[in-house]
Amino acid sequence: MKVGVLTISDRSFSGERPDTSGPRLVEHIRALGWAVARQAIVPDEQERIEQLLIDWCDSGEVELILTTGGTGFAERDRTPEATQRVIERPAPGMAEAMRAASLRTTPHAMLSRAVSGIRGRCLIVNLPGSPKAALENLAVLEPALPHAIALLQDPGGAESGHAPKPTVKRA
């Protein structure tokens, strides 16, 4: 799996504070045996987030983009809005699963506005900005991600076991 990791943080982008979530995600992704094809930090500016997501998805170099940061209630948190403008098809079950699992840990999980969706053959998933929460949320999705990416990369072959049975016409 070819993954892009995008950290969205004004303070990390400006150098005011180091990015801790992005590098932790990269380390974890590599430990899973997945390739990190792209990695970047951008400020909490919706247009810049949108453009980078479009560029990465449309390049064909990544199959999965994990964003970290910008999913809360703060005025500058615009990652979900940027993602929604870029995706062609939503994948709400992923964000719902992350929130449901996180609610077992903290009531603050209900404050997450993270979304997930598909652009072309690329899946975009918004993760929280905290390294611990980002890794916990990614762990919720890990069992389903290889199949999701297989479906996006080869929609005809990956679902062959799920094909409907032919109907029998009755006379």
Describe the structure.
With 171 residues, the chain is of the alpha/beta class. The protein has one domain: 3-Layer(aba) Sandwich (Molybdenum Cofactor Biosythetic Enzyme, Chain A), CATH 3.40.980. The chain contains 8 helices and 6 strands; from the N terminus they run βααβαβαβαββααα. Strand 5 and strand 6 (122-127) form a beta hairpin. It is globular. The mean pLDDT is 93.
Offer a few descriptive terms:
single chain; 171 residues; alpha/beta; Molybdenum Cofactor Biosythetic Enzyme, Chain A; 6-stranded mixed beta sheet; 43% helix
Fold-level CATH name: Molybdenum Cofactor Biosythetic Enzyme, Chain A
Count of structural domains? 1
Report the CATH architecture. 3-Layer(aba) Sandwich
Q: Tell me the strand percentage band.
A: 15-25%
Largest sheet: 6 strands, mixed
Which strand order does the major sheet show?
A: 2-1-3-6-5-4
Query: Looking at this structure, what is the CATH superfamily?
Result: MoaB/Mog-like domain
Task: Return residue spans where pLDDT drops below 50 for at least 5 consecutive residues.
Answer: none
Strand tally is: 6
Gyration radius over CA:
17 Å
Mean pLDDT: 93
The CATH class designation is: Alpha Beta
From the spread of the alpha carbons, the general shape counts as globular
Helix share bin: 40-55%
Q: Which structural class fits the helix and strand makeup?
A: alpha/beta
Number of helical stretches of at least 4 residues: 8
Distance between the termini: 49 Å
Order of helices and strands: EHHEHEHEHEEHHH
